[in-house]
Amino acid sequence: MRFFKGKKMQNAVKSPKNSEKSDNNGKIINSFNQPDMLQNSQPYSLIKDSSPDKASNGEIVVDHVPESIIKTLESRLDHMCIKKSEDEGGPCCNTASVPGIVTQRSCVYGGARVVLMPITDAIHLVHGPIGCASCTWDIRGSRTSGEDLYKTGFSTNLEEKDIVFGGEKKLFSTIIELNSLYQPSAIFVYSTCVVGLIGDDLKAVCREAEKVTECRVIPVQSEGFRSFNKSLGHQLACDAMLDYLIGTGEMDSKLKSEISTQPTLNIVGEFNVAGDLWAIKPLIEKMGVKVLSVLTGDSCVEDIAKAHHADLNIVQCQKSSNYLARQMEEKYGIPYLKVNFFGIDDTAKSLKIISEFFGNPEMIEKTDELIRTEIETVRSKISHYKKKLTGKRVAVYVGGNKAWSLIRAFEELGMKVIMTGTQNGLPEDYERIMETVSEGTLVVDDANSMELSRLLQKYQPDLVISGAKEKYMTHKLGIPFCDFNHDRITSFAGFKGFINFAKELDRAVSSPVWKFTPKKYQGI
Amino acid sequence: MSCANVIKKERTSVINPLVTCQPMGAMYAVTGIRRGLPLVHGAQGCSTFVRYAFARHFREPSEIAVTSLHEDAAVFGGRRNLISGIGNLAMRFKPSLIGAISTCSSEIIGDDMDGFIKVAKKEMKERMGEEEAEKVKIVPISTPSFVETHFKGYDNAIKALVDNLARDPGESNDKVNIIPGIVSPGDIREIKHILALMGIEGLFLTDISDPFDSPLRPSATEMKPFYPKGGTTVEEICDTSNSLGTISLCGYAGSGAVSLEKKYDVPAAVGPIPIGVQNTDQFLRNLKKFTGLEIPDAILDERGLLIDSMADIASRYLFGRKVAVFGDPAISSGIARFVSELGMIPSVVCTGVESPEFVEEMKKVAKESDEPVDVLIRSDLRDLETHLQENPVDLMIGHSDGRLFAKSLDIPLIRVGFPVYDRVGYHRVPVVGYNGGVNLMDRITNTVFEKCYDDNEYWKLQQ
Q1: Among positive and negative, which fits the CA dihedral A52, A56, A58, A62?
Q2: Using an 8 Å Cβ cutoff, are A244 and A295 in contact?
Q3: Do B68 and A194 touch (CB under 8 A)?
Q4: Would you tell me which residues 325-364 of chain A have a C-beta closer than 8 angstroms to some C-beta of chain B?
Q5: Running DSSP on this structure, what letter comes out for residue A488?
Q6: What is the pTM of this model?
Q7: pLDDT tens, A76-125?
């Protein structure tokens, strides 16, 4: 554990349970023995480093706390840090949330679902009580250019009698029924909390159903409570693809001839939220590279089944999909490159490393030219927004990857990231974050709603980047907000997306409404 | 021909669900309490997805805590998680009430919520001092996700609140308890408006109108956004036993009312939701019955305004048009009755629950409209979609989840209910009361204009 260098971190490293949570690659280990934070923390005691000022209603006042970042639970202190110098360690991360705080985190099932759901021609069947499906169907924001079966919500609707006698029969008949209704390319079956508890044998049912239906029936062992970190769900989703899908597809003659003349790659960890993929794919194709499959944005089951034929994997969301790329390298010898298509420089760099990987001088030249012309266009189109955005301070709180991948993009607009953090960050995520942020940036892990609101009140950023759950709290504090999550409707990726991004930020920040909100309110 | 054809879903699978699970209803109910916080005893997703759903419907922050059950809890039970969760929540948020809401996992592992809460209270006293700890009420709400739906969860929550908090009756408070059901802030405000005109003080079980629609303005005393203004106070809930009566605006949430009647002789009236003329009349009759007050002119004027606009509009533009209504059983049956009052034909009404009251209401509507009504119960949106493919209608009234097939079937969808996330402001606009009737009718009529009168040659509407 090279990473945790800070003084506070050493305790975390010493604990054998903590060090079990990730190996040197930062890969999550699916462990039953999650650290029992309840034993080694004192969830009741507030920090003691100053006597809190009391407001009239007994609430603790946020400001005037000299030694700590904000008032929080003692067990939460290590999860926040301010970057001071190069070799500073990151915050403590990847531990269980404190019960009873309003964590912004989701569950393992949610993690698995977001990775697989963009597969457009598959049935995504949730094996569990109705709520798990009700609350999550069609919320991903992934766009499609063809099939739209993935937008339909499917549930086995487990009820009391199924809980008592087991849900296997119901699952089996549901799969048969859905297959005859839709003839899908595949049926992903997600397991939820209760299924893990009552012990339905998901794999066996799927195997049987596959024999009867002759359709791919793929179990996803995503019981919600398997981990505090939904990253395990990402990994389980990747496992489902690795075990049941990738490597099962045959090449037809057309594809064979294309592949023989063109280098190929898979875009891994790109989910086509708001159509991001459609800004990335054309750039790669212009370079002369064939995109064999996308895992999983705007993809079809058969494309993913053929993914093992690619020459290269490029990984966009490294949070969810580094694991997949590593496994594909091990299994099929496909090398992978980490890319980032948010921001001008990072998009250019990403394209450049792809062309350099293939090493074809013609392609390198073509790519350089492409980058030159694209950058010229972008620069001219964002200059208006840049003028208005320069100097603004941004707070970022997101699922994982974007906590670091957006930082340069903001800098390119003259903005400064003063706070960044993730709900489900792993050590490798925070390593990237600490490398990327400038000194003085606050880095926070698994912040709950009270911490977030206190941090925002204290640091008063000009803009917050996060998801729907945080949006309205931010607005109530009088701070502009820009959605960078499932609900986003504008593509932000690639060069074109960057123009949208700048426009969207300007929309948020420059709206006249902020003249009337608490920060500036002077009374009527 | 006037009959209600009850059709039940025959499929095993649920495709595009119309309902969600019990805990959501309980979370909604607890949010309507002043300084009340829901604590979900389950996995993190159980709170996250509901918070997300509330945020995108109401466009407001939603504070819901979770005990974050993990695998060790499945083996050893969620005792520590619940106890420490309650402690943390009490210490940090200083709520006046914590609704401890169970889920599928905690019910299956058999966590003894009542017992754990006792221990939690003891620990709280040690840590916070007796006085502070006493200020936090903790109410266990049993909501197994694999039984019934979020409507039942809402009912269970209201009953748990009343059963745990209502105290032995003393002097009458001259108030009327109102159980609103899962409605919008706009609806609750409209009910308050009617009560105010009547001169009655209402006691809402519970009142989400301010918590889910709160102003963005500086607050001198409170840390935003944890406690938005409004909500029913714990003291008020304790006082429900002293009210003149309890009116539940919906059939599915009557248990609390019945419990108050049995225990404390507070008379109960359950349903129907006051949508449309007759249902609102019924609501006013209930108010009159409990308080002995007369209906004031101001309300009769509002009724008259609704009838006046119905006279202007209903027969000319709406009569005979077929409508499909879906969603919440109470709201749907109210709307079905209202559209039949407008001369429209509620040819199909669809809900995700199996509810005897709903079927009874629909029989009444079929009789009144003298047209057959297909009543889909325990259904999902695919049922409705396939039904509409064979039995087309002119309009659909329901929530946003119907938007995709409404588009593919080319039927205009008027958004009402929960969730509405692809249009703004609908949570503010009431559908209940006479004013709500005017709103809803105008929306229906304007949609008909857009669908049927799109020829721009008309410089005015046909008279």
Answers
A1: negative
A2: no
A3: no
A4: none
A5: -
A6: 0.91
A7: 888 998 888 766 678 999 889 989 988 889 999 999 999 999 999 999 99
